[in-house]
């Protein structure tokens, strides 16, 4: 049912990690290039204008302190405009380029009510609870299908937490009484590369109490058909549903594993 939509739209999606890696690489390459040119040009001038012990040439036009190197439109002015011009072009293009990509990271691919998966993520001391559209809830592990945009509505029941996964490059405040949104998508190619199941570590990024460092979880991406099979098996499931107010100790978060989600291949 959703397959045709995925095939049409899925191919040009980019994961946040991919976008950030590209930005990092472009800035690193440009920084290295510009740095090399500047340092080389400086060293060349240091050598060219070194004090070789001889008398200064008569026609040498040495700058005085406080003088702008305009040279009345002569060669010095050209150099000045060239360096300002090049710097401006580099800086402005980088700002436009990076801002455009960051807008994509914020907004994500076009929303599609039919195929997007909405998950309510609730942080508590100390763990994460996930509620699926069918009402099924799990703790510790979030299971999602590949090639779907997953929208997370992140909130908290007690204190401020911060839901995030470094590998997926997502991070979002979890604040009581408020909901913040973040999206991600895992491609089926990635799932295949990782042996039919892609897993990502989830952590809390806001110091929230004694069990903060144990507030870990996992996002598991499965191929579409396997996920659907699993998801259907959760319908009306009340065994795993739990009341967040019930309070869970640090130990409980660690015990949530694949055992909690039937039908997931080990
Ligand atoms: Cu926390």
Automatic annotation (TrEMBL):
Pfam families: COX2. Residues 235-244 have a biased composition (Polar residues). Residues 114-233 form the Cytochrome oxidase subunit II copper A binding domain. PANTHER family: CYTOCHROME C OXIDASE SUBUNIT 2, CYTOCHROME C OXIDASE, SUBUNIT II. The chain crosses the membrane at residues 23-44, 80-105. Residues 230-266 are annotated as: Disordered. One of its GO terms (cellular component) is membrane. InterPro entries: CcO_II (IPR045187), CcO_II-like_C (IPR002429), Cupredoxin (IPR008972), Cyt_c_oxidase_su2 (IPR014222). It is found in: Membrane. This is Cytochrome c oxidase subunit II. It is a multi-pass membrane protein. One of its GO terms (molecular function) is metal ion binding. It comes from Halorubrum yunnanense. Its main location: membrane. Belongs to the cytochrome c oxidase subunit 2 family. Keywords: Copper, Electron transport, Membrane, Metal-binding, Respiratory chain, Transmembrane, Transmembrane helix, Transport.
